[in-house]
Design a protein that fits this description.
It contains five helices and two strands, in the order H-H-E-E-H-H-H. The protein is mainly alpha-helical. The relative contact order is 0.16.
Length: about 130
């Protein structure tokens, strides 16, 4: 294995560890209950409703459990982010508790954002460790 490859792997490991450490400290994960959503402010209620639709019905567009006398239909609401709901669906394969799915999705977003930024910085030839920070 080349020395540059080792540096790249080490910097990537530093990135993941640094991201996890900051998340653990900033979100106070030691005292957090994973089954209770981290927040209900803003659009969280609508997003939780969509996630619950994915968990219960396989996708978020129509939910027969909400919207009496009919069903909740999200088709008229402009949502272009199907990839996020695909990730939610994949997480829901392991657990059906919406709070856990919501929180894991939130935490995964922080990690994936850090990894994406790292690849962009590396694309522009920034130093390994500068990119990790």
């Amino acid at each position: 294995m080349k020395n540059n490859t080792r540096k790249e792997i080490a910097a990537f490991a530093v990135l993941i560890l640094l991201c996890l450490a900051v998340m653990f400290w900033a979100l106070d994960l030691r005292n957090a209950l994973l089954k209770v959503p981290f927040g209900y402010a803003g659009d969280a209620k609508a997003i939780i409703s969509m996630m619950k639709g994915v968990i219960d019905n396989g996708w978020f567009l129509q939910n027969p459990f909400v919207g009496a006398p009919g069903t909740l239909d999200w088709r008229d609401y402009p949502i272009a982010d199907n990839f996020s709901f695909l990730v939610v669906w994949m997480i829901s394969l392991f657990t059906s508790k919406f709070g856990v799915v919501f929180n894991l999705f939130l935490l995964l977003n922080y990690i994936l954002t850090a990894v994406t930024a790292w690849f962009v910085f590396r694309h522009f030839r920034l130093n390994y460790y500068v990119s990790a920070c």
